[in-house]
Every structure is written in C-alpha cells, then in structure tokens.
Amino acid sequence: MQFSPSEKSYMITAILSFAVIYNAFSQSIETKYFKDVTTTHLPIDAEGHTLDVVLADVNGDGHLDAILALENLPNRLYLNDGTGKFSWKKGVFSEESHDTEHVRIGDFDKDGNLDVIFVAEDDRNHEFYLGNGNGTFRNVSGRLPAKSEANGLDIGDVNGDGLLDVIVGNTGPTPQSFLWLNNPEKPGHFIDYTKEGLPALRWETQSVKLADLNNDGILDLIAGNEVPPNRLFFNDGKGHFTEHPEKLELIVPLHTREVLTFDANGDKHLDILFLNLTSNGGAFEKDPTARLLINDGKGNFKDETSKRIPKQDYSSYAGAVIDFNYDGHPDMILSALKIPPFQAMQVQALQNDGKGNFSLVTSDVIPESTVGRSWGIAVGDVNGDGKPDLFIGQWGTQARLLLGK
After folding, report:
1. Which residues pair with 155 in a beta bridge?
2. Which of 9, 61, 282, 352 registers the highest number of CB atoms within 10 A of its CB?
C-alpha cells in the first residue's frame, strides 16, 4: 500500500504523539524502583479511610494478606492470590463502623494462628479477634481490659514470659497509656498492668513503639505525643517502665504521629525517627520535619536531624523503612500532606548514603500516581518475587499498592 508524503507525515506525527502520551502515562505509575498496580491489584474504594495496614498470611497459603484499620467504616481483610492481587473478604470482622486508628497482628493465645487487635479513638471501641488459621476470626473483644480514646498501639513480650503483651497509647480527657500483660494461665486473655508497669502521666500519645533501645535484650518503650514532650522509658525486664527524659534530646516542640526505630547509620544500634505534623489539619504551628535521634549504643539519643534529614514543609502521619535501592542501607518512605489546608501530596522517599544521611529522591523513586492523603504504610513481598512492596493506606483517597522492582 502506497502513502502520500502528507499521509506519511501525519502517521509519523500520530505515532510520536502516542509514544509521548504512553511514556507520560508509564512514568506516572512507574519508576525504576516501584510500579503502581493499584487499579489492577486492589479493591477500588476512593472514599475509604485506611489509617493503618499490616501484611501477614492469615489463611496459611504462604501469601501475605492485608488487614486494614479504617476510620468510621468496618475494618477489612484483603486476601492475596499470591501474585499480589487482593480481594476483599467481607464479613470477617465486625460490620459495625468504628473510629479505628491502628492494627497489630500476632499469636496471642499460642495456638499457632495469627490474631488481630484494633484500637479506636473517638468511639473508644477496641476490637480483638482470635484467628482460626483459615482466614476467619472469632470476636473476643470482651477480653480487652478497658476502653479509651486510643491512637498508639504496639505488641511485644515485655516481661519475658514468651507471650505477646499490649501497649495502648491514649489521648482524650484522661490520656494515661495502657499496659496489658498476656495472662500466662490463660494465654489470649489480658491482665491490666497499667498501674504497676507505667508511670501515671498525661501522655497525649499518637504512637507507641516497643524496641530494645539500650542493648540489654529487653523491650523498651518510645511514646510519640501530639502534645510535647515525646517520652522514652526503659524496661526492667518484668514489665516495669521508668522514664528517662535525660536520655532523649528534644530540641524543638513536636506533634508526633508515628515512631520508627531502625539502625540509620550502620553502627548496630537502633536509632529513633519521629514523624510529625505541623498540626492536625489546622494552621501551621510546629516544624513537621522528621526528627532523627542517633543512639550512642547506651540508650542516649542525640537529635542530629539538621545534618541528616532535609527540612520539610509537609506533614507525615506515617512512614516505613525499606531498602528500596538494595544497597544494604535502610531508606525511608514518608506519607505526606500539605497542612494547611490538608492537601493531598505525593508519597515521599529519602535515600540513605549508608552513614545515616538522607537525601530527598521522590521523583526518582515514587510514582506520581501516589498523590493522596497517605497514612499507614506496610512493607512486604506480596507477589513472591523476593522484592519488598508497599501497601499505602489513605484518608479519603484510594489505598495504593506499589510493587518493588
């Protein structure tokens, strides 16, 4: 078939235009490090408020499933088919809507199956489910010792008996955090050990983290608070926590929303990262830059943010640690919102130089399609290719799944 010069010119122009459009689309959902597969791999719900998510195999098929904590909607289970494609299994958890903030998963009753605990804020309705090992759960929320306006949640064996215990960080009129010890005589039941184990303080806590911070083999506690100061507690090994403010350098007032611990500078000691807001959707009040506190190996933490972390004007409700460039050094993924006015932004990435100094590399690492009001972030290999993936919760925008490349 013969084409005239004008027809050939038109066809070349059309092909080049298609290539430009295709490349722009590809770049919007894919980078060298991640591909956004949300539209093909996740249930679509642009109105959901996924504040937290954990990845775990709850039905014994060897694939990581996703448990979502939702604000003012029933909590959810998404089952993974092994390729990273998730389907919503409805009716697994209570169908009532609660102001759920956080979720953790672990084997509390020592039967070999994973169990789930959620905590809620405004309606004070915490939930506890025992797993059956096949993707179904029994609601035993009545076993939880108390209600509260909760935001922070973490689990771990704080008294050395081999059972998972629970720390709940509270806000509200009486914001005393809770310590619930797993009952060794009835695993999966709890003893309220708050008065014995925790100092009586106004915590105003948004995040709690259990980690061995002074290298004694015992889980200690960091509380990230919406009202300063953040707090550091050392554990005596029996579940008694003592505050040590002299060991936690806090040089600026913070509104912290999540605490992460990881070895930032490669010295084999856990450091502390506080992720912060300027305010919770209001005016610009506090510096929201993530604060990195370096551990001297003895549990003394010095704020070295100014020389290690780029200054930021966006707020972060959550984040995750992941080595996205496979150089053996932990990098950071941060949720991001422009506050004011609570404006959706692209998820952010910071790369570690191996010595604990971080540079902003968002445009190279994170697909442009991740613009949203991002919240809790979970890391795990959901498609079995040996590379870590990102499941990103969102407030009032579509949760997103990024497959690592």
Report:
1. 166
2. 352
Contacts of 369 (CB under 8 A, 6+ apart): 28, 29, 36, 38, 400
Angstrom distance (rounded) from CA 215 to CA 297? 7
d(CA 193, CA 178): 8
Q: Token pair for residue 228?
A: 């300063």
The closest alpha carbon to 172, from 232, 104, 123, belongs to 123
Question: DSSP code of 111?
Answer: S
List the beta strands (DSSP E) in 113-264. 115-120, 127-131, 137-139, 149-156, 165-171, 178-182, 190-192, 205-211, 220-225, 231-235, 241-243, 255-262
In whole angstroms, give the CA distance from residue 108 to residue 190. Answer: 10
Residue 342, classified by CB atoms within 10 Å of its CB into exposed (0-12), middle (13-18) or buried (19+), is middle
Label residue 290 left, alpha or beta by phi (over 0 means left) and psi (-120 to 50 means alpha): beta
Which tens digits make up the pLDDT trace of 300-327?
999 999 999 999 999 999 999 999 999 9
CB 60, CB 107: distance < 8 Å: no
Rounded Cα distance between 322 and 290, Å, is 16
Q: Write out the two tokens for 105.
A: 């998963």
